[in-house]
Amino acid sequence: MGGKVNSIMYAFVYGTLKRGEPNHHWLTDTTNGFATFTGTGVIQSKYPLVIASRYNIPFLVDKEGTGKNVHGEIYEIDEQMLASLDVLEEYPKLYTRREVPILLTGDSNDSGLVKQAWTYFLTDFKPELLTLPHLDSYLSNGSHNLPYVASEDDLADANDI
Predict the structure, then answer these.
(1) Cβ(49)–Cβ(95) below 8 Å
(2) Is-catalytic flag, 76?
(3) Do 81 and 33 touch, CB atoms closer than 8 A?
(4) Is residue 45 within 8 Å of 69, Cβ to Cβ?
(5) To pair with 158 at 20 to 30 A between CA atoms, which of 21, 55, 60, 131?
(6) pTM (2 decimals)?
(7) pLDDT digit string (tens) for 13-63?
(8) What are the residue boundaries of the Gamma-glutamylcyclotransferase AIG2-like domain, all occurrences included (predicted)?
(9) Kind plus residue range of the DSSP H or E element containing 97
(10) What share of the chain in percent tops pLDDT 90?
(11) Residue 7: what pLDDT?
(12) How far is residue 89's CA from residue 92's CA, in Å, rounded to a whole number?
């Protein structure tokens, strides 16, 4: 009695963390915490999803009402995984994170339901970023011909974004 019960949390991933993408291993590495794929979804509000920086990083720009309804994947996660994702996403230095409503899509029984999921947004950006093509879905090897470039460098340089 009196023990802490972990609440169920969800993360919405739209870029390199999706299945088949270069950073998906973060979600499958149990040393980072618990994560299980629960389905696909789309952000209910429109946001610009752009590819930028010398590393061709997909950024979800925090400019609600501009862009497209972005498609991605939903994962059930624990607090340890959220903390690990914070490290990868350089939160709060590079990204901000907040829960947003995600409409579940796909073939699951949950299709059509809405879940609140943690999502990472780029808040400190140059206005020119909004002039880049807005995507509704990201693939590293997509037709945009801007494959993701993995790097150990500190990417949290606003001058590079």
Answers:
(1) no
(2) no
(3) yes
(4) yes
(5) 21
(6) 0.90
(7) 999 999 999 999 999 999 999 999 999 999 999 999 999 999 999 999 999
(8) 12-128
(9) strand 95-105
(10) 83
(11) 74
(12) 8
Residue 47 has phi, psi (to 5 degrees) of: -145, 150
More confident residue, 106 or 99: 99
On whether the CB atoms of residues 110 and 97 are closer than 8 A, the answer is no
Distance of CA 146 to the CA centre of its chain: 18
Cα angle 37, 39, 43 (rounded to 5 degrees) comes to 115
Q: What is the mean pLDDT of the chain?
A: 91
Q: How far apart are CA 31 and CA 120, in angstroms?
A: 21
The tokens for 31 are 């040393």
Pick the residue with more confidence: 111 or 140?
140
Instruction: Pick the catalytic residue from 21, 89, 90, 152.
Output: 89
Q: How many CA atoms lie within 13 A of 131 on its CB side?
A: 4
In the block, which residue shows the tokens 């973060």?
A: 26
